[in-house]
Amino acid sequence: MFIGHFAVGFAAKRFAPRASLGWLIAAALFLDLVWPLLVMAGIETVRIDPGNTAFTPLDFVYYPWSHSAVMTLVWAALVAAVFQWKIGYWRGTVAIAVGVTSHWVLDAVSHRPDMPLAPGLQSKVGLGLWNNVAATAAVEIAMLLGARILYTHATRPRNRAGQYGYWSFVGLLAFLYAGAIHGEPPPNVTVLLLTALSAWLAVWWAAWLDRNRTSR
Description:
By secondary structure, the protein is mainly α. The protein has nine helices and six strands; from the N terminus they run H-H-E-E-H-H-H-E-E-H-E-H-H-H-E.
């Protein structure tokens, strides 16, 4: 998924209003934040394969350290522990752990059977939602719209930065999602990885806009 992961971060704000949206979105995206770094390090492998599924041209050849079920639980525990150590907010810690874990669950729904269960195991799962573009878009858009409502009910802008920063963020997500549906495949893996690394900027943007909003 793409905007579905962002939706988890937005929705979590209702459960943990004192947690920064930056942390919450970082948790929901975490596996994808780690993944390009591991590919660049030669630990994991991806290739561009147009037609791999109807929705994405990517063939996730080997990525058990970032995206296996077992490692997802490890990452969730680590990220939640760091959050609790730095922030000391238990509702936020729970939201962080659930956010990281949700990534694997949503990807298992979306991907063809290429989601590993653990490093070293050959068994993989995936329900294949990505084989239907319309269904994928309907699910993700519904998730984002619902999460947006939860977030705006949990917070309100304290200034124009909080208002326009939020709407520009949501607008950018919609623009990028439309590009993902209708755009051309990346020309090479290097461009793909650089694009994937830009998700770190989204985390920073989410943290910034959330500082300009206040809990209701």
